[in-house]
Amino acid sequence: RYLCTMASSKINDKLDVESQTVMSSEQIQELSEISKKYAFLVKTSEQKDDLIKLLIKEKNILDGEKILLQKEHQAAVKDKENIVMRFAMVEKNLLDAKNQIENMEKKEKKYLKDTEALNNRIKTLKDEKQNINTLLEMKCQEQKNNVKDIDALKNQISSLETKCKWNSVKLKQEMETKLALEKELQEIKSLEICHKVETQENGQQKIDELKANQITLKHINSEQADKICFLEKQLEVACNEKASFKAQLAVCQGNIAKLESENKKQNETACELQIMLDDHILKVAELQSKSSEFETCRAALSIAQSTNKEHVLHIEQLKKIVDGHSKEIEVLRQSESELLALNEKLSFSNVVLQNEIALHQSKSLAISIENDSVKKSQVEYETNVQKLVTQINLDRKNLAEERLTMAKHVTEKNKECQTLKKQLDQALGDLDAMRKKNILIVKDLQREISTLQKNVKKESVNGENETTSTDDIHHPIFESPAGQKKQCFETDASSQKLIERIIRLQQANNRQAEKIDFLENHSDFLVSEVQKKSKIIQHYMMREQSSSCSSDKNKLYTGIIQTIYGNNKISDMNVDLVLEVNRKLQSVLEETILKNITLKENIDTLGLEIDHLTRQLVSFKKENR
Question: Rounded to 10 degrees, what is the CA torsion of 437, 441, 443, 446?
């Protein structure tokens, strides 16, 4: 445009200049050519301007379309990315769902394994409880036996203490008797000094006798001293054995405590304790034999005392023996002090034993309390087990009752089906009889129609003859064709009615026969289905009876589940599976009940139609008559 405007301005300037000058022809031609070119250029410039505008518009449109396409492209890319993300999310969700399903299956398997392990553990715990109860009873019996043995040892210790006391009392009495003898000897010495003068002559004889008696008494005293030494040794041995018994009792008590702490080594330690107790019993028997010997010695001492009383008359002979007896008295005093020390030791050991016995009693009380707690827990477990057993029994009873009700329903339905079959057979027999009767009636009607047609033909022939014979006598000529027409019309109307009635009856019979065939087929189909389902239920009942007789777990998988699911074995009988089976059985029962209801309705309709047909046949027979 700018160039065109510039060119036009220049041209105008030139024209103005040339207009001012003298214009020649050639210049005029050139100007005309230039003007034409100018016009052409203006047109072309305008066309180009239009093209440029169009192109700018197209460019703007294309830019807008480009922007839109870019937006659409971006949206498509975003949609693609979103779709990819969604697909990835869906795949991820699927994988997560698969993983969750696998985890759930694993958890189910784990739970099943845990339940089986818990059941096995409960069984093992029951066995362990029984073993623990037996062991506790054995321990109680052993404890009672130990208490009895301790009481026996206490009694033996008390008897030994009483024997020691009795020996100490005896020794005191002997000391007193010795002191009395010394006093008597002193008195005798004083009397001897007084009677020396009087008895010098008889003294030598008495001295000889006393010497002889002294010798005999020395022998007797030596024997008695040996016996006393032997008895003292036995007493020391008995005291040592008593101390050893006390030590053994302490060892036994320690062993009892160890037995209470160590449950596994109870049987072996109990056997060892029983062996030790047997040894103790043998030792106690030996001690009893020794005590009997001691009693015999005591009796011998009593006899010796009686002899000493007899020897009181011979006091004069015991003067030389007093010195020896004084020494023996000192020895006996020493032994008495030793015995008193032993008594103190025995009393101390008795106190220790009593304390240990109290400790054992407290331990036995603790054990009894633990036993009570164990028994309570056992009772709780037993109650829980009984509750579970009762629940299982109730479930079994409910299942058995449901089975019985199912069996009763099945038997009732079988009976109803049998009765319906009988009724169908009777109805079919009645229908066959009615068909035969209808066929006979139709044949009779056809015969009657044929006879009627023959009679009509004969009457028509006879009528013609009569008309010819009686034209001249009775009637005029114009009356004969009207009578013939009336008779023919009446016969035709009656025959048409009969034919129409026969056709209607045949059509009704055909319809009823079709209905009867349909009902027969439907009843046969229903009977076959009922028979199949009754066979399934009978098979299930037989399997359930066999499974109730035998308590194997593998037989639980057979039965109705096998009939429904085929021969595919199921891993575990779950509650959901049992509920599904019950639902399917209920659905089967509902279907059978509905089919039985439809069968009854069809049979009722069949009976009504048979009654209607029989009434129609009866009415038809009456009309024919």
Answer: -160
pLDDT in tens, 189-235: 777 676 665 656 665 666 666 666 667 666 766 776 676 677 677 66
Q: How far apart are CA 570 and CA 562, in angstroms?
A: 9
Q: Which residue is it, tokens 């922007």?
A: 67
Residue 398, both tokens: 């409910």
Higher-pLDDT residue of 199 and 236 is 236
Asked if residue 564 lies in contact with residue 488, where contact means CB atoms within 8 angstroms, the answer is no
Distance from the Cα of residue 479 to its chain's centroid = 111
For the cut 60, the answer to whether the pLDDT of residue 14 exceeds it is no
CA–CA distance, 54 with 346 (Å, rounded to integer): 140
Distance CA 523, CA 364 (A): 83
Whole-angstrom CA distances from 384 to 152, 179, 381 are 45, 84, 5
Please report how many Cα atoms fall inside a 13 Å half-sphere around the Cα of residue 176, on the Cβ side.
Answer: 6
* Dihedral angle over CA of 239, 244, 249, 251, nearest 10: 160
Amino acid identity of residue 511, one-letter, is R
- List the structure tokens of 579: 């509920």
The pLDDT tens digits of the residues spanning 531-588 come to 666 666 666 555 655 554 444 444 444 444 444 444 444 444 455 666 676 677 767 7
Across 554-587, b (16+ Cβ under 10 Å) vs e yields: eeebbbbbbeeeeeeeeeeeeeeeeeebeeebee
User: Within 13 A of 61's CA, how many CA atoms are on the CB side?
Assistant: 6
Sign of CA dihedral 141, 145, 148, 150: negative
Measured CA distances, 299 to 10, 217, 294, 302, 596 (Å): 185, 19, 9, 5, 112
Q: In 10 A of CB 346, how many CB atoms?
A: 19
CA angle 308, 310, 315 (to 5 degrees): 75
Residue count of the chain, please give it: 625
Classify the C-alpha dihedral 100-101-103-107 as positive or negative.
Answer: positive
Tokens encoding 365: 């009380």
For residues 386 and 581, give the distance between their C-alpha atoms in angstroms, rounded to a whole number. Answer: 28
3-state SS of 45-107 is HHHHHHHHHHHHHHHHHHHHHHHHHHHHHHHHHHHHHHHHHHHHHHHHHHHHHHHHHHHHHHH
Cα gap 604→596, rounded to integer Å: 12
Alpha-carbon dihedral sign for residues 545, 551, 555, 560: positive
Nearest to 164 by CA among 244, 248, 223, 242: 242
Residue spans per domain, the chain: 2-117, 146-377, 395-449+495-624
Contact criterion met (CB below 8 Å) for 534 and 412 = no
C-alpha distance from residue 345 to each of 152, 163, 350, 382, 588 (Å): 20, 16, 8, 53, 94
Phi/psi-derived region of residue 388, left when phi > 0, alpha when psi is between -120 and 50, beta in every other case: alpha
